[in-house]
Amino acid sequence: MKEEFKDKVAVVTGASMGMGLAAAKAFAAAGATVVLIDILDATTQAEELVAAGYKAEAFLCDVADETQVKVTIDKIVAKYGRLDFAFNNAGIQSPAQEVADVSNETYERILDINLKGVWNFMKYELQQMRKQGSGAIVNNSSLGGLVGVPGRAAYHASKHGILGLTKSAALEYAQQGIRINAVCPGIIVTPMVEDMLANETDAMDILMQQLPIKRLGKAEEVADVVLWLCSSASTYVIGQAISVDGGYTVQ
Asked: Residue 95's pLDDT is what?
């Protein structure tokens, strides 16, 4: 697999930690030049990859701001001349609340980052990939894109939306050499999930009891699927939502 990623350029959003950082490391180890994008400064993470002998750099960007996204993609293309892979991963969670109690501000912020952020990046990634006639995009949805969970309506709405966007865009670009798919991670060890485990003990205990595999997932296990979806091993996979959830959604 390493040879096919050599001299290629990968973009990862939400790359300062969690699944985004794991995917950035995996792209770099596979031979790609990886651009770590986050609203938080990921310079240290990129420098650590460079120190390890890989090709990486970091960009600050608010995924919900279309102007920032366009400028960021333009800079990447101007510097590297291409864009081959993208993992649109940036997202946020919110405290569990009944729908009737969720403020419009909370709802809009979740959709702005989780759904509009994917839309913004995919839009400008596709403009470059369409010129090239090649590329692979993976959008990060969630088990929350496949099922419902009480108290998570806003989050699940955003993650269901990502799957609709992924499927429709995949059909548009299937004949143009561009493959678009999604991953649907379950309960993965990330700062977001660690915060939920600490502050929402009862709800998380219930979810853990429902996990067939009886353990939390690793960010690297999601990154492995992302790389597979970008590789030549998955060239006939179009518009799919791949669950990486320890069996949760097949019950």
From this structure: 82
Q: How far from 231 is each of 4, 183, 202, CA to CA, in Å?
A: 8, 14, 40
In terms of phi and psi (left: phi > 0; alpha: psi -120 to 50; beta: otherwise), the region of 38 is: beta
**Residue 178 CB partners (closer than 8 Å, separation 6+):** 126, 129, 130, 133, 134, 135, 136, 137
Cα(69)–Cα(214) distance, rounded to whole angstroms? 39
Catalytic residue among 155, 173, 236, 248: 155
Which element (helix H / strand E) includes 166? helix 153-173
Residue 115 in tokens: 């759904």
Q: Reply yes or no on whether the pLDDT at 203 is more than 80.
A: no
pTM above 0.90, yes or no: yes
DSSP state of 16: T
SS3 string of 19-32?
HHHHHHHHHHHCCC
Mean pLDDT score, 214-220: 92
Strand pairing partners for 56?
34
Q: Is 155 a catalytic residue?
A: yes
Note whether 99 and 153 are within 8 A (CB): yes
pLDDT-based confidence at residue 51 (cuts at 50, 70, 90): very high
CA distances from 37 to 15, 121, 128, 139, 180 (A): 6, 11, 17, 14, 19
